[in-house]
Amino acid sequence: MQSTTERRMATGPPPPVASLRSGPDLPAGRSIVRLRDDLDIAGAPALRERLISVLRPGTRLVVFDLSRVRSCDPVGLAVLVGLQRRARLRGIVVRLVAPSLPVSDVLRSTGLERCFTVCQDLASALAGEGAIPQALAS
Known about the structure:
By secondary structure, the protein is an alpha/beta fold.
């Protein structure tokens, strides 16, 4: 009988992207990516590829909803940092929304909360309003 860890390694981790939303219900050029579960080394390669695909021509804003992320290790954080770097090179704005406590703690402890625009809720992220420093959001 396999343990949970062995099954997870054999089948691969579930994708950390819960949903990707763009289209007629959002203004043109905007996408919302809802992340879930763990942003960690196990899912990083698949996550990186999936998120890079969001940075397509015509996109002006990508919002990452981090409210359902249970944990974030340095590799998961590196995916977010790398994605933001790629986005900037393409003229795309990246905003983080409602990071869970574990993600907030990692951002704060690494000093990366200063590198991201963090918003309290989705409406303010889409409007570009209400962006607050992560240190003040907690």
